[in-house]
Structure formats: structure tokens, C-alpha cells
């Protein structure tokens, strides 16, 4: 296996900044637990609050793509991180359920602003043949910070869940400062048509919509784990804070398994096949959650699930960047990212209801079956790349369409 080429300096600085941010970013999984324990809300009410947060992330993600094009990537990232810090402090200081809900909605409105510009910086700074590795390393950078964050969550969560939100706010501000000082000054250009002279309209791109549909389904599974795992552990008689240990095991696996991405057997897989394999791994990990009750077995399940996440994150964002016309990756990534907002809205509603009425085994078994369905679906509907024959024909048809006003259709 040859020595990989170093990533551009801008990308390396961005990865470092997101590690700093991730060190405190384990408060969100405990939002429902905080609302339930500190404010006396029912399980259903706590799920509704988390759903309100998820709903607010949808306009946040779209605004992040729009602002990245209008005011610049660095400025948008800093704005989003500072907004997150303010919201986290509001949740930590909330004296009533009303204030906690307001803080959760504000957090959702700021939470996704920095994702489209961050992903666009990676996608546009790295050559096409290295994008899967770059996005996998981005996932690993977040996981590296997550290892410390999981231990911090397990420690502070046993003392007071509010300190998780204070810590998250501090790391958001530290990340914002690092981004502002280290990344180049913004030189945004007004969004325009693609290289064929047609308007950039992500929502009319059938290939992107296909990836958005399956990506939303994956995000629903991912968010179900993030949001529901602490509550599920509590129902099994384990401390909710032990979810931090499971998140740490998953993060460590993501970091240590990075060399697997560069193995010939992995690089030769087409994107549909790689995503199908990833969902089989996710199904195996979720089945472990359904069948086991001891902490060591749950840790092993978390590690297997994280291997699936690693395969998905590297491939899916490289594919979306590949599908985007030149200069439009921010808008394509923003539209794709709305799937995370949809998932964050639905996951707490579905998860809390399944937990309340069917129990933890039914919850994780249903998610594992959903993964098996997605594995089969990827083999049928997921495009291989922007250079597949079907994709080239689609772009040729688009090149004959009349030019409309540039911009993103909502």
C-alpha cells in the first residue's frame, strides 16, 4: 500500500479545528435526558423537543449552503459555531422547560450552518481520486475529538448533564477562533450557472434526489442511535451516561480503521457495493444492541456499527461532490444535508414511541431490518459516479435546456 499524498494545508487546518469542536460535542444525545430529568418532562414531550431541534436544522443546512456562496465559507463556519455556543449556554442555564425548548430550537437553527461550507472546502480542495480518503479522514477527525468527548460525557454526565452543554459551548467558541485565524480570508463569488450555461438546480437532479432519499434513511438510523441510545440504556438498567463509553468505542474504531479504506479490496468496490456492505455492518451492530445486555458486548456492537458508518461517510459525500457541477458543491451538499434534519426530526419521535410501547429489542431489531432493506436498495438505485453513462446522458440533456435565473430552488 503506497504512502498517501498529504492533504492541502487548508483541509488539515479545518480537520484540526473540527477536532477541537468535537471534544465537547456530546451534549446533543443527552438533550432528551436533560429535559426529562431536570424539567420533569414526559418521554413523549422530550421526544417532541428533540424533534423541534431536528426540524430547525433543515433551514439551517440550506442557509449554510446559501451563506457559504454569498458571504464565504470561513465566515459562515464562524457564524454557525458562535450561534451554537449561545444556544448551548441557553440550554445549560434554562430554569424552565420553556427556556430549554427555546434553546433547543435556537441550537437547531445554528447547528448545521457550518456543515455545507466545511464539506465544500474538502470537496473542492482535494483531487477527485482522493475525495473518499479526505471525507473518511474528516469523519476520523470528528471521531478523534469524539473519543475525548465520550469520556468527558461519561464523567460530567454522572455529575450534572448541564456541564456537557457548557463544555460544548466552550469548544464551539475555540473552534470558531481557530477557523477565523487559520483559514484564508473569504473571497466569495456570486453563484451562477454550471459549465453548460444551465442554472444550478439541485432539486431537479434525479441522481442527487436518489442519493438524498437513501442518505435520509441512513441518517434516520444514525440519529436513532445518537438520540435514543442513552434512554435505551436506562431502560435496560444501565446508566444513561454509559452511552458516552459506547460513543467512545465507536469513535476509536473510526480512527483506527482508517487504513482499511485504502486497502485494494476496499478501493476496488463501486460506490453502490460499498454502501451495501456498509449497511450490512450497520445491521450487524444494531442486532448486537438488540440481543446483548452487558457493557462489553454493547461496546463490541458499537465498534461493528462504526465500521459501517466509516464506509458510508467517506463514500457518500465524495459521491455528492462528484455529482455537483463546477462551483456548486456547497449547494449540492446543503440539499443532501437536509436529510439529516429530516432524520433528526423523526428519530426522537419514532425512537421514544418504540421504546415506550415495544422496548429496546424491538427498536434495534427494526433498525437492523431497515439497514438490510437499504443494502439491497443501494445496489439498485445508487449511481456510481458523475461519469457513469446514465449520468453523462443526463448532463448532455441539461446542456440543451434554456438558461434560467441562477440559484438554488427551494
What topology emerges from the helices and strands here?
Elements: H1 9-22, H2 31-39, H3 43-70, H4 73-93, H5 97-111, H6 115-125, H7 131-159, H8 162-182, H9 206-235, H10 243-256, H11 258-261, H12 264-267, H13 271-291, H14 295-323, H15 329-357, H16 360-381, H17 389-399
N→C terminal distance? 44 Å
**Stretches where pLDDT falls below 50 for ≥5 residues?**
387-410
Total helical elements:
17
Return the structural class: mainly alpha
Major sheet, described briefly?
none
CA radius of gyration is 20 Å
Order of helices and strands: HHHHHHHHHHHHHHHHH
Proportion of residues in β-strands: under 5%
Task: Give the strand tally.
Answer: 0
Q: From the structure provided, what is the oligomeric state, counting identical versus distinct chains?
A: single chain
Mean pLDDT: 79
In one word, what is the shape?
A: globular
Helix content: over 70%
Concise summary:
The protein is 76% helix and 0% strand. By secondary structure, the chain is mostly helical.
How would you characterize the overall build of this protein?
The chain is 76% helix and 0% strand. The protein has 410 residues and is mostly helical. The termini are far apart.
